[in-house]
Amino acid sequence: MQEVTRTTAAEPRCAPTRRVSGLARLFFLLLGASLAQGALAKADAVDRLHAFLEGLNTLSSHFQQVTLSPDGQHMVKSNGMLYIKRPGKFRWVYLAPVKQVIIADGNRVWLHDLELDQISNESEDKALRGTPAELLAGKQPIANEFKILPWNGGHGLQWVELQPKAKDTQIVKIRIGFAGDHLDTLLMQDTFGQLTRFTFTATKRNPVLNDDLFRLRMPPGGNFLNVN
User: Fold this and answer.
1) CA–CA distance, 65 with 23 (Å, rounded to integer)
2) Which CATH number do you get for residue 152?
3) Is 7 a member of any domain?
4) CA 91 to CA 94: how far, in whole Å?
5) Residues 66, 76: contact at Cβ < 8 Å?
6) SS percent in the chain: helix, strand, coil, step 5
7) Does the residue 1 lie in any domain?
8) Is residue 64 part of a domain?
9) Whole-angstrom Cα distance, residue 106 to residue 84?
10) Residue 59 near residue 167 (C-beta atoms within 8 A)
11) pLDDT digits 0-9 by tens, 29-87
């Protein structure tokens, strides 16, 4: 690990791997519904996911995030904006309660904590492995990275469950709920026992997005941490 410090500052609150899978300290299994095991149900789940991703080049959306502690006693709410440009680029902006920007530029993932003026970066392949960001913006076919299963989560949505094939990811499972052709909800559970729920609104499919959204503007005099 290399560290380049331009100003004296505390260690960053979270490195890209923790925060992106952390985008994704996700979610919460609303009901203990069992998985449908039939071949037809599995085919429907796979078809639903592929139908959403097919022809998806860009995406923008507002999101609300709720994260629960392992004991279910502590809850953190946040909100922001998400921009995706496939393959391999996204901008994830947290507006509250902590202002942070996470950018994947196609090679590396950058996390900018605006309040501390600290920047961390890590290789994209390592930071995104097995996370929802890899699912939505990834360069590889989904089946290469995730096992895809149906899930009966109710609430009037069509659900798909994804289990990362990578052994070194912090994500246990991701569950995605579609309202027709629209992304509605994303649930995620991590290896720390935290459960997180994203709800997406005002989503736009294939909007025109400026490439500048996916470049980090280096602030003068910031604190930088490089992770291989």
Assistant:
1) 9
2) 2.50.20.10
3) no
4) 10
5) yes
6) 15, 45, 40
7) no
8) yes
9) 11
10) no
11) 222 223 333 344 555 767 878 888 888 899 999 999 999 988 887 788 999 999 999 88
- How many other CB atoms sit within 10 Å of the CB of residue 61? 20
Indicate the number of domains in the chain.
Answer: 1
In a domain, 139, yes or no: yes
Give tens-digit pLDDT for 149-172. 888 888 888 899 988 888 877 888
Distances (CA, A) of 117 to 38, 72, 82, 99, 109: 51, 32, 21, 10, 16
pTM, whole model, 2 decimals? Answer: 0.73
* Rounded CA separation 179/111 (Å): 31
Per the structure, the complete domain to which residue 161 belongs is given by: 13-223
The whole-angstrom separation of Cα 94 and Cα 122 is 19
How would you classify the pairing of strands 118-123 and 223-226?
Answer: parallel
CB atoms near residue 119 (< 10 Å): 22
Q: Where are the alpha helices (DSSP H) in 60-162?
A: 124-128, 132-137, 142-145
Whats the size of the chain, residue-wise? 228
- DSSP 8-state secondary structure symbol assigned to residue 133: H
Answer whether 104's CB lies under 8 Å from 214's CB.
yes
